[in-house]
Amino acid sequence: MKHMFGxxxxxxxxxxxxxxxGQDRWVIGxxxxxxxxxxxxxxxxxxxxxxxxxxxxxxxxxWYWEVRGEYLVFDRENVERISQDTLxxxxxISMDLELFGLGIEGRYHFFGRQGKGIINPYLxxxxxxxxxxxxxxxxxxxxxSVPEFKQRDWSAGLxxxxxxxxxxxxxxxxxxxxxxxxxxGELWPTLSLGMESVGGFQTIVAxxxxxxxx
Length: 214
What we know:
The structure is a single chain. Helix content is 10%, strand content 59%. By secondary structure, the protein is mainly beta. The chain has one domain: Porin (Beta Barrel), CATH 2.40.160.20. The longest helix is centred in the first third of the chain and has 15 residues, at 2-16. It starts with a helix and ends with a strand.
């Protein structure tokens, strides 16, 4: 918990020191993202949806900074990949990876926050802390007995990508973006099943978010 508390102090400081000006705007948002595992993570799980909420303010004409909360759980095993790489039948292995994240997200709008009509492309950057939990149920097969596996930890996360914000009204928009994201954690190996460790939870993230400005 102290990791998250320290990170929140940094986030509050960054948002509070932005210079006040007549162009300041606050924003709140909510949305969903389709998270596609890559690297070692795709050997264990299929894609999953995450939920995101955010709130922040403008720094100037081009930059927005937001605090973002996120919840994600991978609970569908990649049966085909596990069956190829492990010593057992994957349909009898039950495992999941659950993540709670809190971080800061920056958007740099190339044409300014008003964009050009509905065209308003931006560069997105994010960093945060994640509390995650990994579990695998106990397994027995042909004399092979593997106890249940539980792992939990705090890890940093980083992401970057590009998107476009569609401004339907001066106070309402819909953002679509694609990003690369990594949570710097590690899933330990299960050698008795032939499962190697996963170093870094890497995903390609396609997200959409509705935002309200005031």
